[in-house]
Design goal:
By secondary structure, the chain is α/β, with parallel strands linked by helices. 37% of the residues lie in helices and 13% in strands. The protein binds phosphoric acid mono(formamide)ester (CP).
């Protein structure tokens, strides 16, 4: 694998999942694979899990890790071509990415959508510019449209907790006071398509995701009926794709409660707003698997890094 930015970068998704399972069982099994290699993690947006789990994964593989909150600690970056840089942006991505590549062998980058334009966000201009100008393998730490490290961890979590061969998995919208990207939801659907699951989506009218991700998956506007017989409820807020960036808040009707959940396990990528997205009673119950789900970010990141290191 020469980069990890979406499912399409992965030649054998089931093989990658199997590798993540191996890393889950034997985290120190590749302790010298990354010896002498450096990973640089760049964040244009905040992170807890992605930052720490990817750093931990790289260290388990024997790599050196550098982390930079590039928008706070570095020069403000210009991504546009041909601009007169007489404003507040002091460095162009062409130089910045190329220079970063002088210091490391792999680079991870987090770039959220700007919400200025759907076309711009969905063309992944920032991530693609970085890939082009750095010239070394790039791992997405979440981009405008996808979060593949999260999705691989989600798949591993479902495999770990499932009690039937083909569990029913429901991706459910939930309320949130802020405008959030569609990346986690898009990516979850993209990866669940290659998993052996009975996949459904539940959201209010107007919160359809892009057809590119939902095509062929049953969509419900009645959350309660969607949850019937569910084994896993994966909850996430996303803002509107069609009325790009619009939100719907407050909307208590879509908050996850124990009554709605039935016997299903509760999943969320975190961070999660208690008593907005999901009631305390769910997160405090044994049906919540969000902590092992977050723990699985480490073997998922290990698996992605192992496949890139093996190709260096
Ligand atoms: N789930 C996730 O990506 O968490 P962070 O934003 O804290 O990295």
């Amino acid at each position: 694998m020469d980069k990890f930015t979406s499912l399409s970068d992965v030649g054998d998704p089931s093989g990658l999942l199997a590798l993540a399972k191996e890393a889950q069982l034997n985290p120190h099994g590749w302790a010298s694979l990354g010896k002498g290699k450096t990973l640089c993690l760049l964040f244009l947006n905040p992170s807890l899990r992605t930052r720490l789990s990817t750093q931990k994964a790289a260290q388990l593989l024997g790599m050196e890790v550098m982390v930079m909150n590039i928008n706070q600690d570095g020069w403000k970056l210009e991504f546009e071509e041909g601009v007169v840089m007489d404003g507040d942006k002091a460095e162009h991505i062409k130089e910045a990415a190329a220079v970063i590549a002088q210091y490391c062998d792999l680079v991870g980058i987090r770039t959220f959508p700007s919400f200025k334009s759907r076309e711009e966000d969905y063309s992944e201009n920032l991530l693609n510019a970085f890939i082009e100008y750095c010239g070394i393998p790039v791992v997405s730490l979440e981009s405008a449209t996808r979060h593949p490290l999260q999705s691989l961890a989600d798949w591993l979590t479902i495999e770990t907790f499932k009690k039937s061969q083909r569990p029913k998995v429901v991706l459910s919208w939930a309320p949130h006071p802020r405008r959030l990207p569609q990346a986690v939801a898009n990516s979850f659907l993209e990866w669940m398509r290659v998993a052996d699951v009975n996949l459904h989506i539940a959201h209010p009218q107007g919160f359809e995701l892009s057809d590119e991700f939902t095509n062929g998956i049953p969509i419900h506007h009645d959350q309660q009926s969607a949850f019937q017989g569910a084994d896993f409820v994966y909850t996430k807020n996303w803002s509107s794709f069609h009325n790009y960036g619009e939100t719907l808040y407050p909307n208590k009707d879509w908050e996850i409660t124990l009554e709605k959940l039935g016997n299903a396990s509760f999943m969320h990528c975190l961070p999660v707003r208690r008593n907005v997205v999901v009631a305390d009673e769910v997160l405090n119950s044994s049906q919540s698997i969000v902590i092992p789900q977050a723990g699985n970010r480490v073997p998922a990141a290990q698996a992605a890094l192992i496949q890139i290191l093996q190709n260096l």
